[in-house]
Amino acid sequence: MRPHEPEPVRPTKEDEVARAGSELIGGPLGRRMLYAATWWSPVRIIALIAIGMFALGMVQKMPCYNGAWFFGTSSQYTHACYSDIPHLYQGRGFADGLVPYFDKLPGDMEYLEYPVLTGAFMEVASWVTPGSGSMPHQEKAYWMVNSAILMVCVAVVAVCVARTHRRRPWDALLVALSPALALTATINWDLLAVAFTSAAMLMWSRSRALAFGVLLGLATAAKLYPFLLLGPLLILCWRAGRWREFGAALLGTAGIWLVVNLPVMLLANDGWSKFYSFSKERPVDFGSFWLILSQRMDSPLSTETVNVLAMALMLLACLGVAALGLTAPRRPRFAQLAFLLVAAFVLTNKVYSPQYVLWLIPLAVLARPRWRDFLIWQACEVAYFLGIWMYLAYTTSGDAHKGLPTEGYQVVIAVHLLGTLYLCAVVVRDIWMPERDPVRRGGDDDPSGGVLDSAEDVFVLGAAAYPARTVAHSTAGPAVKWGSAVELPR
Q1: What pTM was estimated for this model as a whole?
Q2: pLDDT of 198 above 70
Q3: Of the four listed, 130, 290, 326, 464, which is most buried by Cβ atoms within 10 Å?
Q4: Residue 320 shares a structural domain with residue 444
Q5: Which keywords are on file for this protein (predicted)?
Q6: Number of H helices, E strands in the chain
Q7: Do 47 and 28 share a structural domain?
Q8: Other C-beta atoms lying within 10 Å of the C-beta of residue 166
Q9: What sign does the CA torsion over 229, 235, 236, 241 have?
């Protein structure tokens, strides 16, 4: 540490659950260790722990190594070791050398239904996969190759989260030790987008708006959800008057997204558009509250109706987050609003795959770095992870019906929804009551906010909702009018 830098925050000093858990490894970290000259910095320790947890997740998939993926047996569900990766090696033409988006696939799918950058990831991994041996052997090798690259993504996520909050690197232990991350990391390719998004958050915390935009554009080219972060950023930059920085972020995002997508869009438009048409035409699927409704309704809603209703709910959530950002007594932190909006997308979507939890983990750690709340949410997600495989085992085991019946699966969906809503609720509480926010209670404003950190407000709504705070801390004259440009005390 440099002499002028503030002391890093020790979770074992301020978090009761972290303090109790540290007894397993010898007790809380002493203050002298913060200043000890050693190679074992927090970032390196966290990265190695994240890699170790990822490796444990690979071990958890071992029951499927013997061909359960290829033969499609129910054992891949009863052992909770299912992964899309080996199935799509042959199912999306990689085993036959087909080029994504350009070559048609046999069957009803026609083209690869993934964004361009994820398709490139899948294609590059297929080049490294040995093309000899039996198909089960090739599928296992393809999963191994992808897992090796995804392990790098996990390390990137852990390092970026650790470095985003300069004084709180140890918060990233929540990412590294996340059981849901270990269990879902190799189900699909979502970690690529999560890594780019985490790197973008790090760049924004360093006030590098254009680099943030470029990385967010790459993340959006790999998965759709990262572009949602521009919404909270717009609200916060509006409130702080940081239009130049928001413009740079928007330009970088749109520019790099076009650079990645435009060649495929022009040369193979039918294949490029498959992801978007598939998302629209996809019926209600696993994990969503829409599935509970459809299973309990005599006449389930059509896909078109669900699309409209889900879009309306998401729009309402966006308006709610915008109102929260503009009317809160103190400007919310960027990570807080980002988590809320992505969580709203997860909750209102017509499908929830188990690996979608990866989208929320880094944002949750930055928004609410409290072990108790994080572990409550993780317990709910682990319950859902086990529940969906037991349900699929039940539906694929024939007359034996070994697994979780429909009613039980609906319960674990509800557990997942309630766990996410709980974490959203405590984040909203932190926004309305900044003294409850773990980050701000330690003296920081918005470490992940970059140019927003400690910036003065120039625009707020609903100033009359907190006149006592304004009167107590401001020497400005008369009351603020609704929607007027103001500078409020932080």
Answers
A1: 0.90
A2: yes
A3: 290
A4: yes
A5: Cell membrane, Membrane, Transferase, Transmembrane, Transmembrane helix
A6: 25, 0
A7: no
A8: 16
A9: positive
